[in-house]
Amino acid sequence: MVVSRKIFSKNIFYKTIIHDYTFCLYNLKKIFLFLYIVLFVLDLKTISGNLLLLQNVSLKSTRNASFLNKRSASELWKSVISVSNAGKRRGRGRTASKAKDLNKTQKIGFGKIPIIFPGFNSNIILGDTTLQQRPFTEQEKLNYIQEQETKNLISTTKRNKLHPLLRGWSGGQPGGRRLGPPSSDESFKGFETWILYCNHTSIMTSNMGRTKRCRLLVITGNRKGLAGFVMLSGSEFKSTVNAAKVKAGQRLIYVERHNDHTVLHDFFSQFGNTKIFVEQRPKGHGLQCHRVIRTCCEAVGITDLFAKIEGSNNVSSIVKAFFIGLLQQKTYDQIVKEKGLHLVEMRKENNYFPTVLASPTVVRDSSEISPTETLDFKNYVMNGRIPLRKKVRLPFYTKLPSWLIHLRKQERHRDQDKVIIRLRAEYGDICSFLTEKYPEARPSKWRKHDKKKEETT
Ligand SMILES: *[C@@H]1O[C@H](CO)[C@@H](O)[C@H](O)[C@H]1NC(C)=O
Ligand SMILES: *[C@@H]1O[C@H](CO)[C@@H](O)[C@H](O)[C@H]1NC(C)=O
Ligand SMILES: *[C@@H]1O[C@H](CO)[C@@H](O)[C@H](O)[C@H]1NC(C)=O
Ligand SMILES: *[C@@H]1O[C@H](CO)[C@@H](O)[C@H](O)[C@H]1NC(C)=O
């Protein structure tokens, strides 16, 4: 019985002790009676024999000064970071931290000058000798450092950082990232997959905690006319990406290309509120379009094209509209068959010399052509649509009176550069209608660098 003296006055203290004592006396009678019976039953000799033997007593000194000393480290960590099985199923503790190694920077003896402290960081007795306190030898230091390094290598989980060339269109966003072929199957050799759109959403539910969803638009293609795309949503990013990749590989579409580098002809197509105007371009022009269309072109194998989007920029609408347009393309023979007329090309490069590209088997004559029929090829393939070209706004200074003065001063030199280029291209020199008559009449070298050139030569 422990009684604090500070609280109780002397009188009460004595009283309690006397009370305890009488209580004990009363109990002793019973205990002696019980022992008497026990000894009677048991063999006295065996008990006395055992008591006289040597006993090994292990002493363990513990001072449970506070709550923290009473509990082991693992118990304390468990109370902070553990989640029950039922909680785990509901998604609790997904973001809980892991147990930290609090010894990490405060190991006895391993400071700036490592020192052996027998009993703390090494054994006291090694073989027959007792160890003394001393600094580490060089070899021991090296061993210790190597040990730490191997420990760090094992313990640190590496963040999988993307190689700069494998990143998408912009920053760390998944859009435009490459994923490799849909499967390692031999039939998907040469295929590549791109992420076109990725949206992560999370919803707080009453019994499942925060649930994550991920929505992906993925396109796969072999750059030789075969391509497939799919929109898929799932819970985890990684698994959804893989599922989408496989699914896109199962929905392949074949697209015809002109000379394996561009679209068959210009076209207009629309899906939802998204309108796309696509134009053919010569080889080497490159892809001049929205990044989503550019990636689609890469998958299909188109290298030269111009495209303009009007209306909504919704990614899935863009992809659908583009593919609808690609699939609705017609070859020249098909167009000619529909129209019953020759298809004739006149290019500026060829001096507008008419070249027949395709001819139908039966040609209509002029009496059969109605005056309202569209005969312009571009107008026909574009379905009568014309992309909206934004008006270029004139700069503010064109409204000032000084602008008129400037124009008046510049009038003599107006279009001079273009004329020089044209003359050089056509006649090989800057000349005029008077050159034949007066060959000595040459234009003055009024430009600085022209003059310098003349002096040096
Ligand atoms: C200290 O705590 C340990 C572990 O809970 C316990 O076994 C031991 O009896 C306690 N010691 C004292 C003096 O209370
Ligand atoms: C931390 O150091 C103490 C005392 O040296 C040791 O009992 C304990 O096991 C160590 N904990 C870890 C996680 O290494
Ligand atoms: C992701 O989807 C949600 C719901 O459909 C939408 O509100 C949000 O704007 C989308 N985020 C992006 C970046 O597209
Ligand atoms: C794009 O439009 C479709 C419907 O056509 C819609 O389901 C989707 O959420 C839209 N995407 C965005 C990013 O707004």
From TrEMBL:
The chain crosses the membrane at residues 31-54. Residues 164-184 are annotated as: Disordered. Pfam families: Ribosomal_S5, Ribosomal_S5_C, Ribosomal_uS5m_N. This is Small ribosomal subunit protein uS5m. One of its GO terms (cellular component) is ribosome. It comes from the Eukaryota. It comes from Apis mellifera. SUPFAM superfamilies: dsRNA-binding domain-like (SSF54768), Ribosomal protein S5 domain 2-like (SSF54211). Residues 66-182 form the Small ribosomal subunit protein uS5m N-terminal domain. Gene3D superfamilies: 3.30.160.20, 3.30.230.10. InterPro entries: Ribosomal_Su5_D2-typ_SF, Ribosomal_uS5, Ribosomal_uS5_C, Ribosomal_uS5_N, Ribosomal_uS5m_N, Ribsml_uS5_D2-typ_fold_subgr. The keyword Iron-sulfur does not apply. Residues 270-338 form the Small ribosomal subunit protein uS5 C-terminal domain. GO terms for biological process: translation. GO terms for molecular function: RNA binding; structural constituent of ribosome. It is found in: Mitochondrion. Residues 169-178 have a biased composition (Gly residues). The keyword Ribosomal protein applies. The lineage of its organism: Eukaryota, Metazoa, Ecdysozoa, Arthropoda, Hexapoda.
